[in-house]
Amino acid sequence: MKRSKLFIAICGTALAVVIASSCEETTETSADEGEVEVATQYKEEAAQLYNHPLILEAFDIILELEERTLEDHIKITEIPAPPFMEDERAAAFRDMIDEAGVDEAYIDEEGNVIGVRKGTKGDRLLVLSAHMDTVFPEGTDVTVRMSGDTLFAPGVGDDSRGMAIVLTVLRAMNKAGIETEADVWFVGTVGEEGLGDLRGVKHLFREGGPEIDAFISVDGGGDSRIVNKGLGSVRYRPKFKGPGGHSWGAFGLANPAHALASAINEFDEKAGEFLAGDVPRTSYNVGRIGGGTSVNSIPYESWMEVDMRSNSHEHLMEIERIFVNAMKKALEEHNSKRASGNPLELDLDKIGDRPSGEIDPSTQLVQRAMAAASQFGFEPRLARSSTDSNIPISLGIPAVTIGRGGAGGSNHSLDEWWANIDGHIAIQRTLLVTVAEAGLAEVN
Asked: Please, what is the Cα angle at 64 between 59 and 68, to 5 degrees?
């Protein structure tokens, strides 16, 4: 079986030597949280599955399918999937899942693609997923450029490669004749990025929805990193609104831009005081500001977009409370100072809510993901991140996010790249975890 190659890549401005690893950016990620011991029973289970004739055959098929996987990868990447506009990619992915071989393939009410592969018992349901959306707006050129083993295109790594892995795992299981005891859904989700706010996976885990017993997401880089902790976040778009007017003739009206500036200052000051204490890792950021019509006009509205995150649900709620109070205080102060005109109004639009949580490392799915990484020679590392797994993790449902392998970088930029440096290993590892969790059915 192939193993690691030495690969030299440029990530940002740094020259890096990568050994079957990745230069993935970590904008959605907190620091890795260390190694955890893998229980002997899961090491033994992984070793037995790894050496099972059907699994070995599937591993060989994955190698044989490398050209097909690359074709799938490029095809997916070159279908635009801007935020809230994943329909075209979803239709194509449904057809690809159907062609690969499932009992049923469809697009649900939220836009998720679901391929149902029934198990021999069907008493449990495992989801293997990747997200279909990208961060890039409509009109972005997503044509793939190739240089050797390296693909360049917006979204080529995040998460087109994950989608290609889901497809190849399905193809390999079918070609090798692998049956599982549990039902397995092969899923492409919508709305993982940005303001999508995990809408696809929230729909999967909605009240009254399917009874999903375990969830695996393929997203992020590397082969050893396993996300079992959800990084929670809340996002707001507050908007101060007023009558507006001429900067000279209407001077004295309450000014939404001035109120916004005061609100930012108040929030920054109070949030900074909060974080100066002994609190779990927590962050806040004003990412966008807008409004107004001209330099000599009092704006009729001014807005911003704010992101807050924390490892702790309680501290996330506290910094959210600080934020809301700062907005209200700025509103009151500027209304009290106005010399004329109607008071300002404040719209507090909550545009994102991703819950925190974590799955205990002793949980069998986490242990199986770690054991699979170990079986392929990697040191498994547990980590916290903001991914589709946040939702099941917050509900206490076993879930992990595992990497797409290969090497890559410049995520969320027009220069995004992914290189097929032992990329097959991530597919084999994903198959091993999937079959371990779904249960390899006995062959008569």
From this structure: 115
Statement to judge: residues 293 and 385 lie in one domain: no
What is the three-class DSSP state of 264? helix
Task: Provide the pLDDT for residue 30.
Answer: 47
Residues 11 and 154 in one domain: yes
Domain containing residue 348: CATH number: 3.30.70.360
Q: How many domains does the chain have?
A: 2
C-alpha span between 30 and 46 (Å, rounded): 28
Tokens of 302: 């001014």
Alpha helical stretches, state H, 65-129: 66-77, 87-101
- For residue 66, give Cα distances in angstroms to 78, 118, 168, 300: 18, 26, 9, 56
Q: Where are the alpha helices (DSSP H) in 157-311?
A: 160-176, 199-204, 256-275
pTM of the model: 0.89
Which stretches in the chain have pLDDT values below 70? Answer: 1-35, 443-444
For residue 10, the model assigns a pLDDT of 40
**CA 223, CA 402: separation in Å to the nearest integer?**
7
CA 166 – CA 440 distance, rounded (Å): 18
| Helix (H) or strand (E) run with residue 358 in it | strand 357-358
d(CA 25, CA 2): 26
216, 399 contact by CB (below 8 A):
yes
Q: Omega before 159 cis (within 30°)?
A: yes
Domain end call among 318, 352, 386 = 352
Q: Kindly provide the residue ranges of all beta strands, DSSP E only, lying in 40-163, ordered along the sequence.
A: 104-107, 113-117, 125-131, 145-147, 150-152
pLDDT of residue 4: 40
Cβ atoms 85, 405 nearer than 8 A: no
Q: How far apart are CA 203 and CA 225, in angstroms?
A: 26
Within a domain: residue 1? Answer: no
The boundaries of the domain holding residue 285 are 233-352
Write down which residue in 304, 337, 352 finishes a domain.
352
Per-residue pLDDT at 36? 79
CATH code of 96's domain: 3.40.630.10
DSSP annotation of 31 reads P
Mean pLDDT over each residue of the chain, to the nearest integer: 92
**Which run of H or of E encompasses 327?**
helix 313-337
